[in-house]
Amino acid sequence: MYNAIVAFLRLIILILFGLQVEGLENIPKTGGAIVASNHTTWFDPVAVACAVRRPVHFMAKAELFQNPLLNKLFRRFYAFPVKRGHADREAIRTAIEVASSGNLLGIFPEGTRARGGELLPLQSGTVFIAAKSGAPIIPVAVSGVSPLRLRKRIIVRIGQPIDLEGPRRISKSEMETASLAISKQFAQLLRRNMD
Question: Which of 113, 162, 108 is closest to 135 using CA atoms?
């Protein structure tokens, strides 16, 4: 069901907006990885899912799962809840399991939508999950997402994998260095999207 719905959504996006994807070769064909994307609109997970040719298991805010119908729908699409504002141990365990089991984990390191378009400071969870699971982090920059503006092309640029050579414990300074590396790639990729 996931593949069929995503293929349908990809077709709709191509017809209504246009979709440009670059760097798809940086997504491994097999094995676990963390697809870490910037986040400006509610449509970003759809854009990432349509750009990446493998199922993506997204962490999504717990509030979305309170409605029984949406709860069922999101879980059908491999999404799982995370409680924002504090360390959600269950969500982190689930994320580590997803990535270490050979799946793609979708995560938004900023923790919430950056409504002004500017990158927000990154939360440490992405790097922690990567270190614990041994999965590389693949920065992804999405721009042009505006479901209300037809024919405005959606651009998804996929960056170079950041491998923390885990699973292992990671120090605070290593965590900060890795977060900075993700931020730098976000900035570079978004700059190219504006060219």
Answer: 162
